[in-house]
Amino acid sequence: MDISIHNSSEKVSVSDAAFSAEFNETLVHQLVVSFMSASRAGTKAQKTRSDVRGGGAKPFRQKGTGRARAGTIRSPLWRSGGTTFAASPRDYGKKLNKKMYRTGMRSIVSELLRQDRLIVVDEMTVAEPKTKLMVARMAEIGVGNKALVLTDGLDSAVYLAARNVPNLMVMDVAIVDPLSLVSQEKVIVDQAALKKLEERLS
């Protein structure tokens, strides 16, 4: 299939397999949930009664004190004691096959193209790393600031010019993720990045 280049009569040819896939909502949802789950740190930790320091000796004798019997000062009932159901470090990642991931990414990109949310430009550059130049470039393309710019390799001038613009993301196409694609209103990709994206989805 052919995709029109913005503000040009030229078209770029891409594979139907990568850019004409059916939209699989269930799979896309699974992809996004899997990515968000894998992004969680999972480093929360608390101490159980066995992890808390001290508490080796019985604090007082079993009978005759008038107090409730106790075997350790590290009981969860005591101040500075252990936690009853202590959290421990865990991995929140969900298993997702490579084939499923690739199919889901094809589904997302194809749907963006059908909804006219994927805009192909000849080249995505700015003369200097200045915010006003990036805002002007986005206005020239005809999109708002809530957009994702995909480049072939991270152009430092584009990245620096865009980082002060709210809701505008610049990302190397080699590391683009499903959440970034679905969360933005428009996705702008230059020709070089489009070819890399096609290779990644093929």
Account of the protein in words:
The structure is a single chain. The chain has 202 residues and is an alpha/beta fold. It has a domain at 2-23 and 104-201: 3-Layer(aba) Sandwich (Ribosomal Protein L4, Chain: A), CATH 3.40.1370. The protein is 35% helix and 12% strand. A hairpin with a 6-residue loop joins strand 1 (2-4) and strand 2. It starts with a strand and ends with a helix.
Question: Quick recap of the structure?
Answer:
The protein is an alpha/beta fold and 202 residues long.
List keywords for this structure.
202 residues, alpha/beta, 7 helices, 12% strand
Query: Which residue ranges are poorly predicted, with pLDDT under 50 across at least 5 consecutive positions?
Result: none
What is the level-2 CATH architecture name of the domain at 2-23 and 104-201? 3-Layer(aba) Sandwich
Proportion in helices: 25-40%
Largest sheet: 4 strands, parallel
CATH topology of the domain at 2-23 and 104-201: Ribosomal Protein L4, Chain: A
Shape: elongated
At the fourth level of CATH, the homologous superfamily of the domain at 2-23 and 104-201 is Ribosomal protein L4/L1
The radius of gyration computed from the alpha-carbon positions, rounded to a whole number of angstroms, is: 27 Å
Q: Please state the structural category.
A: alpha/beta
Tally the beta strands.
6
What is the string of helix and strand elements? EEHHHEHEHEHEH
- By CATH reckoning, the class of the domain at 2-23 and 104-201 would read Alpha Beta
Q: What is the rounded distance between the termini? A: 14 Å
The neighbouring-strand order within the major sheet is 3-6-4-5
Strand content is 5-15%
The DSSP helix count reads 7
Query: What would the average pLDDT be, to the nearest integer?
Result: 92
